[in-house]
């Protein structure tokens, strides 16, 4: 587990971490992640990824959805890297 | 319940996601962080409370309908993090109603409490209403800290509330205000926090406003105490690893650069006092000449964007040297206005914590006095606190703030 990004399986089903809340804030024109006495404002791509992390969809599903929605390809590496970062920061969790 | 003054990590989470940094342009952003001090009533009498020392003379508390209107108006502007504080917010029997409205509006709701007044029935009702998080503070000061450390009555109460927090699936956040009389117990405090199942612990060194300002000479720790406390915290972190996150808030008197207080006044933070006074920081009543608006007479939009009080310290035109030409002004906004006023008599001066301030000697002198006082015969036993001249927060006494040095 020394390389979380490398270990991130495409069939993992990430979810917003326990005790965190993701919501869209019109005033900030952004998704924000809320937690005890704190807030992280997410940029566009991060918000698009996080808002699909519902504990049901796999990373592969999320990538496919994003590629379809934004008519792009080759997003896997970006999504995997962000999910790994978000897990490291405890914004996301992926139950086994 | 008052914890020491607010902590800088509130809206500055480390490693904000790409694009998450807030630009400091001339446009005024929304009051992202709303703090409602629902009441000054509190069963405790903490010597480090930041509430105004003349709080007994403030007007009547806002009604439920007033608080709900404030919530709606602030949420419409973009407020999203909500703190419910006081005094002890559980002293309001409409707390559940206020929480329910805030939840419906989409706030993330933090209850900042001593736990006194929390029951199984209330925590269930608060959960049902949509409360997101409870920060349980350990007041300590003197007798209570003694209780806490010796597992007597108050500790039992806290432990019971902590258990309620756990069983009702809230994140467990403990706050302990540190000062000369308890900072040597940091190791024990952390062990207690671990035993209670805390996920986050804030070790918040007292900041010197309100009652804490009155008691500064008795509360300021020594540098040796601070270093021991930091070492104990480091050792504890190494032992427990990531399961408990510990924020150690250094007392700024020991720093050479000021804290970025409130990320600049009028930037992200709006507090409303029990009587409806709107404040750009908790302690802003201290500042002379600031005509603080009241939510009874104005809506939150007008208060935030248009009132002179909230515009007074926006930007950097108000700054004096050395701040005005200092490249670090965009980082620390000149530090804390209340501290500048309390120590130098002029709220526009640099926060004297900064070693570039011509008044920095006032801070180093206070630290030196603390060193001398600590070298005197030990009087750390809580029972002797009153004998040391500590002033306990009490609604029966009303004390005007005393300025250390008048200078223009």
Describe this entry's structure for a reader.
The complex is a heterodimer of chains A (96) and B (408). Chain A is α+β, with helices and mostly antiparallel strands and 96 residues long. Chain A has one domain (15-90): Arc Repressor Mutant, subunit A. In chain A, 36% of the residues lie in helices and 20% in strands. Chain A is built from four helices and five strands; from the N terminus they run αββββαααβ. Chain A has helices at 4-7, 44-50, 59-69, 76-88, and strands at residues 15-16, 21-25, 30-35, 38-41, 92-93. In chain A, a hairpin with a 2-residue loop joins strand 3 and strand 4. The longest helix of chain A is centred in the last third of the chain and has 13 residues, at 76-88. Chain A is globular and about 35 Å long. By secondary structure, chain B is an alpha/beta fold. Chain B has 14 helices and nine strands. In chain B, helix 1 (64-77) links the parallel strand 1 (33-39) and strand 2. Chain A binds chain B through residues 19, 21, 23, 25-28, 30, 32-46, 89, and chain B through 7, 9-11, 13, 15-20, 22, 30, 32, 77-78, 80-81, 83, 106, 108, 110, 132-133, 135, 171, 173, 200.
What's the short story on this structure?
Chain A has 96 residues and is of the alpha+beta class. Chain A contains four helices and five strands; from the N terminus they run H-E-E-E-E-H-H-H-E.
Distance between the termini of chain B: 36 Å
Largest sheet of chain B: 9 strands, mixed
Number of strands of chain B: 9
The protein's oligomeric status is heterodimer
Form type of chain A? globular
Could you spell the SSE succession of chain B in H and E letters? EHEHEHEHHEHEHHHEEEHHHHH
In the CATH scheme, what's the topology name of chain A?
Arc Repressor Mutant, subunit A
Poorly predicted segments of chain A: 1-6
Mean pLDDT of chain B: 83
Q: How would you state the average pLDDT of chain A, rounded? A: 89
Give me the Rg of chain A, rounded. 13 Å
Name of the CATH first level of chain A: Mainly Alpha
Task: Please give the radius of gyration of chain B in angstroms.
Answer: 20 Å
Shape of chain B: globular
Number of helices of chain B: 14
Largest sheet entry of chain A: 3 strands, antiparallel
Sheet with most strands: strand arrangement of chain B: 7-6-5-4-3-2-1-8-9
